[in-house]
Write a structure and sequence with these properties.
single chain, mainly alpha, elongated
């Protein structure tokens, strides 16, 4: 059980690093408008300035972080490997849902992000690890 917990924690840590790396890269390629990084108030005040292109890298970040985190959790877990992968996706989903309240994105992004990025990407990471 301890190895499974470690697998999920490590999957979350590495997945979070991947996630933040893509967010940082995206902000350099497609700069965020307004005062978006100045806390929740800055996010809400700048939300109307966001265009579809501003959501490309956040989606990639969420999917890649969940995918890699799920892969790592599956590879390290001693048992219930896919459950460990999905646990990473669920944790990332919880964080994503919190962000939805701070920065309300368009409905299409919510659907794509929740429907494809978190749990499905973590499961894909587990399935890719299963083939190794």
């Amino acid at each position: 059980m301890a190895k499974n917990i470690f697998a999920v924690i490590l999957g979350l840590a590495v997945g979070s690093a991947i996630n933040m790396g893509f967010i940082e890269l995206g902000s350099r390629i497609i700069p965020w408008p307004g005062d978006i990084w100045n806390g929740e108030e800055g996010m809400k005040a700048s939300a109307h300035l966001l265009e579809a292109r501003h959501f490309i890298f956040p989606f990639i970040a969420h999917a890649a972080g969940s995918l890699v985190g799920g892969f790592i959790a599956y590879m390290i877990a001693a048992s219930h490997k896919m459950i460990c992968s999905v646990a990473v996706g669920v944790a990332f989903l919880a964080g994503g849902l919190m962000m939805l309240f701070m920065l309300p994105p368009p409905i299409w992004f919510i659907a794509a992000d929740i429907g494809l990025a978190y749990i499905p990407a973590a499961m894909l990471g587990g399935k890719l690890a299963m083939r190794r």
